[in-house]
Structure formats: structure tokens, C-alpha cells
Amino acid sequence: MFAVNLHFNLFDFMGEKDFEKIFQEKIDNEIKIEPRDWMPEKYRQNLIRQVSQHAHSEIVGMLPEGNWITRAPSLKRKAILLAKVQDEAGHGLYLYSATETLGTTRERTINDLHSGKAKYSSIFNYPTLTWADIGAIGWLVDGAAILNQVMLTRTSYGPYARAMVRICREESFHQRQGFEILLVLSKGTTEQKEMCQDAINRWWWPSLMMFGPHDSDSTHSDQSMKWKIKRKSNDELRQNFVDMIAEQVKVLGMSLPDPDLKWNNKTKHYDFGEINWEEFWNVVKGNGPCNRQRLDARKKAWEEGEWVREAAAAYSEKRKIKPKTHKEALETV
Ligand SMILES: [Fe+2]
Ligand SMILES: [Fe+2]
């Protein structure tokens, strides 16, 4: 006699195609994909690339602004800027954690940044020359980031979407503080007004580039829309941004450096000039004004922080061996 094992698992009879069908159905029904769920390898890799790139942008983005913490014009400004830069550090950490839920390690993610394999937002490769730049970054750079991030609160991957909800709350404060810096300068002396306009002139075009290439030239866009990682296209988000900023700049009594910027009554949107894509690709490839400086600063911080990581790891090992509380200690006797 031999026993027949009739116990089987439905999953044993399912192929890649079935899993993919269930996965896409979840997405179509607005059910979030969680770390332990089956997902196509390309979806996982696409997210690792996007979320880690986002994390790197938050961390590298601390550098141009951090540069002004010691030179902020008043104690109040310094406190606000410190809080803002610390928020960005927090955003980076949530996002590195979200990247780890996709099956990669923090070390690998950081190594990819340092080796130049992973990218971060090119906007942070531009220098901050005056105090007005801190205003322009908050207003324009955080303003552009918000549009992208509000969309991402509904992205299909659960941990990424949830991180974005927290991040967006802080981003609105970032944009407001930036706008307020410029508002004060716009009502100041002739020199302050000029400083304000100069910062807007220098940050406007790089901010438009933050949305990425035109939809027709964007390699990852179509698939990301199908998987609901993205819900709005690069050009759609960029248009939303132009429409918003073209109105806000009027409150400042300043102008945007684009002779083609004009309200279009037919489309009910602002028309605007063409972006210098040569400049964009040049900065992406590592040849922007501060690419080298930014990466060197990150590598230095990583090396100098090694003892902190070692101490934290040693402490956590020690906690595993030693009972945690007095009560636990008594119980183990
Ligand atoms: Fe941020
Ligand atoms: Fe921000």
C-alpha cells in the first residue's frame, strides 16, 4: 500500500501569466501592492530605481540649502531653514526604508549613488549664490516636487504611497516659507528686488526640467502609467506647475524669464517656451555646475559617519544578547 498525498496548493498550478493577471487586476481595482505580494520583476526594479532616486534627491537636496544655514539673515530665518533641511533628511530616510521593502539593501542603494549608477534630481546640481536662492528653491523646487508627490500619494505601491502622505504635509510648509522669503525681498530695497528677480531667473528653467523629458521622449512613462506608479504624465504635471507659478509670480511683482509665456484662452492654460534639453541632458550626465561637489560631499559624509553606523549595529547586537528590562532579567533567572 502506498499513500497518495492529495494535498496540493492552488499556487502550484499557477504560472507567471496568472500571477500577472491577478497583479494587474489589483492595480485596476485600486488595491495597493504590498511588499509580500507577488509583483513582476520589472515593476520591482522600476520602483527600486524610482524610490531610491527619490530618496537620493531628498538627501542631496539638503546640500544647496544647508550651505545657507550659517548665513541665514536672522535667527528666525535660520530656525525655519534648519527645520526645513531636517524635514528633507526625514523624507530621505522614509524613502530609503521604502526602497528596502522591495528587497534591496541600504548599502547597495547608497553605493549606487556614490558610483554614479543611480541618479538624483538634477536641480540640486545648481549652486545657491544668494539668500534669495533659498526662497526660490522653496517656492519653485519644492513647489514642483509637491505636484509630483501629491500624485504619488495614490501610487500603486503601498509603502511608497504612505511615505508620500507624510512628506506632502511638510512640503506645503516648504513652499510657503520659500514664497515668503521672496515676498519680503520683493518689498525691500532695489538691491533686494534685483536679488529676488535674479534668483527666479536662474531657478525657473531648471525647475521646469524637474518634471523630466517630454512624454514622447520619456522611456519609463507608459509602463509606469499602466502600473499606476505614475498617474499624470511629465508634460501634464509641468503644465499644472506653469499655470500655478505664472499666477503666483504676479503677487511678487516679479516676472518669469520666458518671453513666450502667455495665457491661452483656447486651452485655458499658459503657453510657454521650449526647455533647453541640451542643458538638461548635460547635467543628468554629470556635467552640471555642482555635480562633482555634491557627490564628493555625500561620499565624505558616508565615510565620516561609519563609526556611527558601527556603534548603532554594536548596540543593537548587545540588546539582543542582554535582557532588555529589569523585569525580563528577573524572569530569565
Ligand atoms: Fe522633501
Ligand atoms: Fe521639501
Describe this structure in words.
- With 333 residues, this protein is mainly α.
- The protein contains 14 helices and two strands.
- It has helices spanning 16-28, 41-60, 62-66, 75-100, 106-115, 131-152, 158-186, 190-209, 221-226, 234-252, 277-287, 291-304, 306-321, 326-331, and strands at residues 262-264, 269-271.
- The protein has a two-stranded antiparallel ribbon.
- The longest helix is centred in the middle third of the chain and has 29 residues, at 158-186.
- The chain is globular.
What descriptive keywords fit this protein?
333 residues; mainly alpha; binds fe (ii) ion; single chain; two-stranded antiparallel ribbon; 2 strands
Topology:
Blueprint: H1 16-28, H2 41-60, H3 62-66, H4 75-100, H5 106-115, H6 131-152, H7 158-186, H8 190-209, H9 221-226, H10 234-252, E1 262-264, E2 269-271, H11 277-287, H12 291-304, H13 306-321, H14 326-331
Antiparallel strand pairs: 1-2
The structure holds fe (ii) ion (2 copies).
Residues 58, 88, 91, 167, 171 line the site of one fe (ii) ion.
* Share in β-strands: under 5%
Question: How is the main sheet built?
Answer: 2 strands, antiparallel
Provide the gyration radius in Å: 24 Å
- Number of beta-strand segments: 2
Q: How helix-rich are the residues, as a percent range?
A: 55-70%
Distance between the termini: 52 Å
Give the H and E element order: HHHHHHHHHHEEHHHH
Q: How large is the count of helical segments?
A: 14
Shape: globular
Low-confidence parts: none
Structural class: mainly alpha
Which oligomeric form is depicted?
Answer: single chain
Strand order, biggest sheet? 1-2
Mean pLDDT: 92
